[in-house]
């Protein structure tokens, strides 16, 4: 722990700085002093629209980014350890696509769906895919094959979504497509407590799983010999990733690459696969990356905002390629 | 023999269930005993059920029939937690442990003894240090598992089993893939653990020569006959190796006489 104090300090500073950055920087230019005034001084003297933007849009958006980044990153880590495959992740294994399909069904067929219906549908979708993956993981022992099955399930879900879209009206398709681009701004102040409670619950559970996760690094037989109740642990891990992925997908749309890439950033930063450090550092790095990506969606000097899913692969994909190319020299691959 | 019996089984039937209630029986009636303070080698040709037998004795799979007594109590009556302090294992399975240090690996052996969060106390640290010292890799404590040679890795996993503080250690082919000097070192280490610390050590191996020289007791297994137990000398005098492997072995114990 002491060895990694510097890592923790830097990461926490990064989260704070990026959080502040998210509040100050946006499509509408608001002077730093005004933002400060609005946040801490009541902001009575500031423009009403500015107060509205900072408190009703930027603040919940930044908090959402912190929670969503942490949720996706930690569920990626849990899946990578569970499947003993450093290339597993909620989007690769088709779990996000399952959640996606659930949301598509609700959005297109039950247009009045509240966000609770949406999150329920996302959870059911994510969970169905998880169960399918678990069933396959009993028959298919090669992890690469299992990943490919996950990718295929993802394609299947996408194709069902396309068929649904074909029959839907134009405005519903538009609504769905917009949601599919990924966005932290979809979570309003009213919705935030719901999203936060799912995300925080999942993150707390993942922190409680540190001890068995380390034992799982040795494989199921060794872990079981050390006293880990394998079946129960596996179910808890999958439920936890299911809740985290489903909640994030339902509220923010399917966000790619954060779950896959961030655990690698954390391992490379720390130089260890020990979950005692890896879980908290993955959570913090996930928040950092999400806050950074959210800032990058704003094109400087214009009102336009890029979709989040246009930014996350630019950061995520090179990391994955780097890790694969250098896998012979990276300890945790061997 | 006055030594304590740690594992005993009579009429044990091993194998695994197939679909629709069918079962694949690997071996039907095994009688066996494991003693404290002894190294026992399980010898047998590939496919005769060595791994299945070890997995059954570790509690990874259920016996199809018969009962295993662990320290006089049925194996099935132990919980996972209780078992983890009685039987430690070293397997051939590939792990994802490359990215943790030797010290962290051995500290996982303390899993059954630590609290919910796995905090290591002073006692745990001293047991880990002793285990590392016993296998002779204390100078490699900070190295990644991925950086170790095959022999060192085997020692690290044996240290993990030691840190578990189990009276019984079961090893699946611990000398496979090792070079000659690592093989001899590993067997000497296991001998020391049995004779000095009173551990019951059971290992499967294909190294007949090494097994004859270093084990106190040998279990011979093939797919047809009942399990034969005996000291290397007894089994050679009895001509058991000849029967089990279709080999000729002279009473001095050289396995190479059949090649002449």
Look at the structure and give the CATH class of chain A.
Mainly Alpha
How far from one another are the termini of chain A?
A: 24 Å
Oligomeric state: heterodimer
Shape, principal axes of CA atoms of chain A? globular
Order of helical and strand elements of chain A: HHHHHHHHHHHHHH
Structural class of chain A: mainly alpha
Q: Please give the alpha-carbon distance between the first and last residues of chain B.
A: 37 Å
Beta percentage of chain B is: 15-25%
The radius of gyration of chain B is: 19 Å
What name goes with the CATH superfamily of chain A?
Answer: ABC transporter involved in vitamin B12 uptake, BtuC
Q: Hey, which two chains have the biggest interface?
A: A-B, 29 and 36 residues
What sequence of helices (H) and strands (E) makes up the elements of chain B? Answer: EEEHEEHEHHHEHEHEEHH
Give the helix proportion of chain B (percent range): 25-40%
Q: What's the overall average pLDDT of chain A, rounded?
A: 89
General description of the model:
- The complex is a heterodimer of chains A (334) and B (260).
- With 334 residues, chain A is an all-alpha fold.
- Chain A has one domain (2-333): ABC transporter involved in vitamin B12 uptake, BtuC.
- In chain A, 74% of the residues lie in helices and 0% in strands.
- Chain A has 14 helices and no strands.
- Chain A has helices at 5-24, 32-40, 48-82, 95-109, 115-139, 143-167, 170-180, 192-208, 210-216, 220-225, 230-252, 258-270, 275-296, 308-325.
- Chain A is globular.
- The relative contact order of chain A is 0.16.
- Chain B is of the alpha/beta class and 260 residues long.
- Chain B has a domain at 95-165.
- Chain B is built from 9 helices and 10 strands.
- In chain B, the strands form 2 sheets. Chain B has a 6-stranded mixed beta sheet, sandwiched between helices.
- In chain B, α6 (180-197) links the parallel β7 (168-172) and β8.
- In chain B, α4 runs antiparallel to α5 (150-163).
- Chain B is globular and about 50 Å long.
- Chain B starts with a strand and ends in a 15-residue tail after the last helix.
- The mean pLDDT of chain B is 89.
- The chains are: A mainly alpha (334), B alpha/beta (260).
- The A-B interface holds A 81, 84, 208, 210-211, 214-215, 217-219, 221-222, 224-229, 267, 271-274, 276, 330-334 and B 55, 58, 60, 80-81, 83-85, 87-89, 91, 93-101, 104-105, 108-109, 111-112, 114, 116-118, 144-147, 164.
């Amino acid at each position: 722990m002491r060895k990694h104090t510097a890592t923790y300090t830097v990461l926490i500073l990064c989260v704070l700085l990026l959080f502040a950055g998210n509040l100050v920087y946006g499509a509408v230019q608001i002077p730093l002093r005004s933002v400060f005034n609005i946040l801490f001084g009541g902001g009575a003297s500031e423009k009403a629209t500015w107060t509205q933007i900072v408190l009703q849009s930027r603040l919940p958006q930044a908090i959402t980014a912190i929670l969503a980044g942490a949720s996706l990153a930690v569920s990626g880590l849990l899946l990578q350890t569970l499947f003993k495959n450093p290339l597993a992740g909620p989007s690769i294994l088709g779990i996000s696509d399952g959640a996606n399909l659930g949301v598509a069904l609700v959005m297109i067929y039950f247009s009045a769906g509240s966000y609770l219906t949406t999150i329920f549908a996302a959870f059911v979708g994510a969970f169905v895919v998880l169960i399918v993956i678990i069933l396959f993981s009993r028959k298919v022992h090669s992890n690469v094959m299992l990943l490919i099955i996950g990718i295929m399930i993802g394609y299947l879900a996408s194709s069902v979504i396309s068929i649904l879209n074909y029959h839907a009206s134009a405005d519903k398709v538009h609504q769905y497509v917009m949601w599919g681009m990924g966005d932290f701004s979809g979570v309003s102040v009213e919705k935030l407590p719901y999203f936060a409670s799912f995300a925080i619950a999942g993150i707390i559970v993942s922190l409680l799983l540190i001890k068995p996760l380390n034992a799982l690094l040795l494989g199921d037989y060794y872990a079981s010999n050390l006293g880990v109740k394998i079946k129960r642990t596996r179910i808890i891990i999958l439920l936890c990733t299911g809740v985290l992925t489903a909640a994030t997908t339902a509220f923010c749309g399917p966000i790619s690459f954060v779950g896959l890439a961030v655990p690698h950033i954390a391992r490379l930063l720390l130089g260890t696969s020990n979950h005692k450090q890896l879980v908290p550092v993955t959570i913090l790095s996930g928040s950092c990356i999400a806050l950074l990506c959210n800032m990058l969606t704003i094109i400087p000097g214009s009102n336009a905002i890029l979709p989040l899913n246009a930014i996350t692969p630019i950061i995520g994909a090179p990391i994955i390629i780097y890790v694969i190319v250098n896998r012979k020299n990276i300890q945790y691959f061997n | 023999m006055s030594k304590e019996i740690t594992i005993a089984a009579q009429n044990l039937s091993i194998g695994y269930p197939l679909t629709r209630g069918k079962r694949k029986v690997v071996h039907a009636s095994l009688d066996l005993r494991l003693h404290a303070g002894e190294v026992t080698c399980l010898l047998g040709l590939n496919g005769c059920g060595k791994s299945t037998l070890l997995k059954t004795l570790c509690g990874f799979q259920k016996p199809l029939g018969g009962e295993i007594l662990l320290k006089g109590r049925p194996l099935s009556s132990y919980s996972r937690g209780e078992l983890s302090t009685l039987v430690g294992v070293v397997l051939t399975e590939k792990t994802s442990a490359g990215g943790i240090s030797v010290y962290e690996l051995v500290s996982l052996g303390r899993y059954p003894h630590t609290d919910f969060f796995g905090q290591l106390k002073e006692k745990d640290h001293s047991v880990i240090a002793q285990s590392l010292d016993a296998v002779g890799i204390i100078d490699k404590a900070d190295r990644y598992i991925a950086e170790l040679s095959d022999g060192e890795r085997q020692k690290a996993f044996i240290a993990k089993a030691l840190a578990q503080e189990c009276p019984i250690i079961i090893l699946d082919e611990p000398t496979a893939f090792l070079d000659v000097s690592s093989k001899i070192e590993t067997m000497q280490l296991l001998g020391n653990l049995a004779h000095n610390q009173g551990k019951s050590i059971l290992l499967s191996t294909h190294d007949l020569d090494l097994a004859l020289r270093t084990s106190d007791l040998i279990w011979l297994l093939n797919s047809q006959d009942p399990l034969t137990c005996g000291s290397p000398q007894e089994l050679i005098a009895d001509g058991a190796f000849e029967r089990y492997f279709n080999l000729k072995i002279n009473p001095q114990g050289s396995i190479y006489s059949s090649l002449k």
